[in-house]
Amino acid sequence: FFSILFRSMQIPEAEGKGEILPPTIQKIIKGYNKYLRPFFDNGPVSIGMSLDIASIDTISEINMDYTATIFLRQRWTDERLCFDGNKSLSLDGRLVEMLWVPDTFIVDSKKSFLHDITVENRLIRIYPNGTVLYALRITTTVACSMDLTKYPMDKQTCTLQLESWGYNINDVMFYWTRGNDSVRGLDTLRLAQYTVEDHFTSVSEAVYETGRYPKLVFHFELKRNILYFILETYVPSILLVVLSWVSFWISQSSVPARICIGVTTVLTMTTLMMGARTSLPNANCFIKAIDVYLGICFSFIFGALLEYAVAHFCTLHRLSSKELPKVGQTWELADFKDVRGKSLCLELKLQLMSNPVSSESITENPLTSKGEDFIACSSPMSVMKRLFCIFDCFHVKNPYHIDNYARFSFPLSFIIINVFYWVYYLYF
């Protein structure tokens, strides 16, 4: 028993498999060495490749990659597999282990796997002249460097690179079997956010420290569909800006109503900005087009809130300026006229605040003094006078006109900025 068992263990693996193979296959496999490439001593072996894109499942801006399911087909000629006949032999995929196959790999692949339901999705076919067709069904996640400065009006160019791992250009040569037509499936492909605008193939070489290796590159250009972002982000942000302008038609005395509109639109815009960034990488180097637009909208909404604060302050300041301090008798600065105009009024107000007792002498004959007492003030006092003069230039005679100006200036400026924004990001 032990003698029989020992003899069975000595049977070579290829011979054991050959016992269950048809005679034609046994003849082909007999003396075949799968560890040596075809034309081992007669130059490199040429390998033609073609692709079928079954699907592109996801395109991630955060990870900057895409996941695709592809059918990879490789063709080469192995003179050791020639046989008599006029029909090809389709073999079981598990017999690939008995033949030499190229060591092709996907360069930028992060994660890949070969489908194995219900069996490994591999095909091997041998033609009478020794040509071998080897096909695989692979799902791979490939890195794709993206420029998101024009997001969501951007175009991305991604690649799928195929190289030989161990054989250099002296051993293996890669080529596309049908040129640009070697890749199929993109014409009928439907993606959620993208449209495939163009695709082409190229042949190059990869240079490493260990040598020069053959490389095939498939390029495809993706254009993002902006309609989704218009409905999801741009239209709501525009409506929020228009809603903030409603406060310009509300009376300034309605403080709760105007403050409520301003604060609500600011908070809603902040939430919209945070939601728009959830599917994007948090990189400081990317100032995206959507960030610029949301920043513009937020500035207009916040500006509308500040406009009411300024208008309300000017209204209160106007009401308080009508009642000046009374010392001895009633006196209004509005009735006081001098060649220096408003500047002298500010100087008189400043003098009254510092020395109220002197107001009597001022009101008795204001035109004779011509401000001589104020010229003799100290240097810090003169600087403050000049500052009051500068601020007086921005004095609003009627604060209620601020809302009238805002009703016209805010929409006009927003339309102009929108024109520049869309023209720049769509055509430049």
The CATH homologous superfamily of the largest domain is named Neurotransmitter-gated ion-channel ligand-binding domain
Order of helices and strands: HHHEEEEEEEEEEEEHHHHHHHHH
For the termini, the CA-CA separation is 84 Å
Q: Could you tell me the strand content as a percent range?
A: 15-25%
**Regions with little confidence, pLDDT below 50 for 5+ residues:** 4-18, 326-346, 356-377
Q: How helix-rich are the residues, as a percent range?
A: 25-40%
**CATH architecture assignment of the largest domain:** Distorted Sandwich
Using only CA atoms, what is the Rg?
41 Å
Question: How many domains, in number, for the residues?
Answer: 2
Shape: rod-shaped
Characterize the main sheet. 8 strands, mixed
According to CATH, the fold-level topology of the largest domain is Acetylcholine Binding Protein, Chain: A
CATH class of the largest domain: Mainly Beta
Overall mean pLDDT stands at 81
**Total strand count, please?**
12
Q: How many H/I helices?
A: 12
Which structural class best describes the helix and strand composition? alpha+beta
